[in-house]
TrEMBL record:
Domain of life: Bacteria
InterPro entries, alphabetized: DIOX_N (IPR026992), IPNS-like_FE2OG_OXY (IPR044861), IPNS-like_sf (IPR027443), Iron_ascorbate_oxido_reductase (IPR050231), Oxoglu/Fe-dep_dioxygenase_dom (IPR005123)
Recorded metabolic or biological pathway in which this protein acts: Alkene biosynthesis; ethylene biosynthesis via 2-oxoglutarate
Family recorded in the similarity comment: Belongs to the iron/ascorbate-dependent oxidoreductase family.
Fe2OG dioxygenase domain: residues covered: 145-253
Protein name, UniProt field: 2-oxoglutarate-dependent ethylene/succinate-forming enzyme
Keywords: Ethylene biosynthesis, Iron, Metal-binding, Oxidoreductase
Catalytic reaction annotation: L-arginine + 2-oxoglutarate + O2 = guanidine + L-glutamate 5-semialdehyde + succinate + CO2; 2-oxoglutarate + O2 + 2 H(+) = ethene + 3 CO2 + H2O
Entries under PANTHER family matching the protein: 2-OXOGLUTARATE (2OG) AND FE(II)-DEPENDENT OXYGENASE SUPERFAMILY PROTEIN-RELATED (PTHR47990)
EC number(s) from the headed UniProt entry: 1.13.12.19, 1.14.20.7
Cofactor: Fe(2+)
Keyword Iron recorded: yes
């Protein structure tokens, strides 16, 4: 298996993109409309924020899940026992955001959401009728003005050498949401698991946008679109002294959206958050 980078502006980009999602759970787009300059500025601004003590003024609230999640309370991926080596901040439209960082991050949130809605129309268009018949409403409408869509700014600190044995930056996991939209991070490390169980580097050329399927789209498509396991491995050699910043946007439907015969979006999310032990 290989992950091909798809030119967003190519005449057959939609079809190729959905084919890649179906076969690998991932799609990589170049030449897309998200400003790389904006992404770079965000990486710089948030690196400074994570390096400062100000982050501690924004400790996350369990009820709303917005704010700063320190490394000490960071996630343990489903099925794992060791915490990931990361800290992060959750941006929601109604959540807390430091004033100085608000403008760029909310601009990015809006732009990435617009791209995401377009990509969901691509997924819908190239879903076989037997699959799209199962969608309760058009996929793009599911996320329209959703306050549940989450932008996570992740900081993987330099390796100290004192990490817990077996800990990695992000242990293998699947995302909970419909699709995840992720600009290539400022350092490599993201890998996707192939059907035969091997780990493959996701092309991380700066400027690419990486999209992956989450469990909610897998549920809504009755398994046609696979939610693929991915992870972020630790750097080696001189890269150990470098931080890594990444910016996944997790597309969440409005809570009342019917995902499948079994679940609304809200029921599905709560079940998963309970399993993770964060609510
Ligand atoms: O940092 C990355 O590149 C990916 C992060 C990720 O998979 C996640 O937070 O769900
Ligand atoms: Fe993920």
């Amino acid at each position: 298996m290989k992950l091909e980078t798809i030119d967003y502006r190519a005449p057959d980009s939609a079809e190729q993109f959905v084919k890649s999602l179906r076969e690998t759970g991932f799609g990589v787009l170049s030449n897309h409309p998200i400003s790389q300059e904006l992404v770079e500025t965000i990486y710089q601004e948030w690196q400074a924020f994570f390096n400062s003590d100000e982050k501690n003024d924004y400790l996350f609230k369990p009820e709303t899940q917005d704010g700063f999640f320190p490394a000490s309370t960071s996630e343990t991926a489903k099925g794992h026992t060791v915490k990931d080596i990361k800290e992060y901040f959750h941006v929601y439209p109604t959540g807390r955001i430091p004033d100085a960082l608000r403008k760029n991050i909310t601009t990015y949130y809006d732009h990435a959401n617009s791209l995401a809605a377009e990509l969901l129309t691509w997924v819908e268009k190239y879903s076989p009728a037997s699959v799209s018949d199962k969608y309760s409403i058009p996929l793009a409408d599911m996320i329209d003005n959703s306050e549940k869509t989450l932008l996570r700014i992740l900081h993987y600190p330099p390796m100290s050498g004192n990490e817990e044995v077996g800990a990695i930056r992000a242990a293998a996991h699947e995302d909970i949401n419909l699709l995840t939209v992720l600009p290539a991070a400022n350092e490599p490390g993201l890998q996707v698991q192939t059907k035969d169980g091997n780990w493959l580097d996701v092309p991380s050329d700066f400027g690419n946008i990486i999209i992956n399927i989450g469990d909610m789209l897998q549920e809504a498509s009755d398994g046609y679109f696979p939610s693929t396991s991915h992870r972020v491995i630790n750097p080696k050699g001189s890269d150990m002294s470098k931080s890594r910043i990444s910016l996944p946007l997790f597309l969440h439907p409005n809570p009342d959206v019917i995902l499948s015969e079994k679940y609304t979006a809200d029921e599905y999310l709560n079940e998963r958050l309970r399993e993770l032990g964060v609510i």
